Automatic annotation (TrEMBL):
One of the GO biological process terms: carbohydrate derivative biosynthetic process
Domain (Glycosyl transferase family): residue spans on this chain: 197-353
Membrane-crossing segments per the record: none
Keyword Glycosyltransferase: yes
Organism: Naasia lichenicola
GO molecular function, one term: glycosyltransferase activity
InterPro entries: Glyco_trans_1 (IPR001296), Glyco_trans_4-like_N (IPR028098), Glycosyltransferase_grp1 (IPR050194)
Taxonomy of the source species: Bacteria, Bacillati, Actinomycetota, Actinomycetes, Micrococcales
Protein name per its UniProtKB record: D-inositol 3-phosphate glycosyltransferase
Swiss-Prot/TrEMBL keywords: Glycosyltransferase, Transferase
Amino acid sequence: MVGDTFPPDVNGASNFSVRLAAGLARRGHNVHVVAQAHTWRQTAGPEEHEGATFTVHRLRSTRWPGHDWIRFVNPLRINANMRRIIREVNPDVLHSQAHLLAGRGGSTEAIKVGLRIVNTNHFMPENLIEHTGLPKFIWPLGVTITWKDATRILKRASAITTPTRRAADYLESKTGLHGVHAVSCGIRAADYTPSFEPRTENRVAFTGRVTGEKQIDKLLEAVAIMPADLNTIVDIIGDGDQRKALEEQAVRLGIADRVIFHGRVSDAKLRSLLTGATVFAMPSIAELQSISTMEAMASGLPIVAADAMALPHLVHDGENGFLFPPGDIPALAERLERVLRLPEDELAIMKNASLRLIEPHDIETTLDVFERLYRGEDVDDPVTEVPPLSSKLREQFRGLRRRARDALTD
C-alpha cells in the first residue's frame, strides 16, 4: 500500500489507509505500507496502528513550504525506492492511495513487473491548489492540467475505487474513465458512544483539518448570528494552517469565549468530545465521503452539512439532520438553531437516524470488497444508500418516544 499521507498525518486519506492496513493485517495478510518519514531518517520496520502490527517503509520527505503538515517524498528517488521495495517484498498487489508522488512511483514500477494495481482516489484539486502558491486566476487552468495528469496515472490500475457513488460519478466525469467502484472508507461504529442523556448545554462540533476548503469561517459567522439565548459552544477538533486566522476571527465576532480550539487530540478524547456534542457541523464543499461526518453519525449526532459533493449521501435532509446551500451563512445558522431547539424526543429521533444510516458503512464490508479486488474478482459495489423512513413510521416512532417519556414521568 502506497500513498502520499499516512499517520501521524490526520486527514481522510490517511485515516482510511491506516484502518484498511490494520484491518487486513488482523485478517492475517502480510501488509507493507510505503509512507513519508517525519524525520530525515529512512526506515523500514514494524509499526503498531489501530491495534494491529504491520511493516511501514518510511521514505525521507520534505515539508511543503508554508503548510503545517503536508510532506512530500523526494520525487527524484521515488521510482528507485519503489523498485527496491517491490523487489524486496515481492507483493501480490499494489494498492495506491494517491497518484501524485509516492503512488505515481509505485504504479510506474508495478507495471514494469506486471504487478496488479488497485487505486483508490481521494484526490480533489480544490483541496490542494490553495497550497500551491499559484495566483487565483491560474487555478482553473491548474485544475484542468491536474485532472489530465491524474487520468494518465489512474489508467494504469486494474481497478479504481472511491468512497461514494457520487464521488465515483464525479471522478468518471473529470477523467473519462469508466467502471469506478464506490466502496465506503468504512468505520467501526462500535468504537463510538452515542449518548441519549438530556443535554445540559448546546455544543456544535467540527472535526477535521483546519484548512480553507473546510469553510470553518462560515461556521463561526453562523454561530455569531445565532440567538444569544442558545449560548452555543463550538468545539473545533483538529489543526491546520487556518487555525490562527480562525482564532482571530472568533475574537472579532465576539464569540472567542464560546469557541474552543482543541487542536489534535487522542482518539479517546475525540470520541469523548463527539459523545458530548449536540450536533455536528460540516460546512466543507470538497468531501469525497467525510470520515469525520461518519464518526459523528456513529456517535449518534444529528448532522448539519453543506449540500455539496458526497455529504448528501450521508445526510438525509430532515431525517438525521439538515443540508444547507454551500456558503449560505444565514441558512447554516438557521439549520443549527433548528436542531438545537428540538425537544429531547425529537432530537433522539435524529440521533437514531444517524445510527441507522451509518450501519451499511461497516469496515468489515469494506475489507471484504478490497480482498476480492486484490484477487482480481468481480465485485458488486456495497449498497450504502438507506431508504428514508416513511412519514408513517416516523410518526409511529415519535409516538413511542412520547409514550415512553410520559410513562417515566408518571
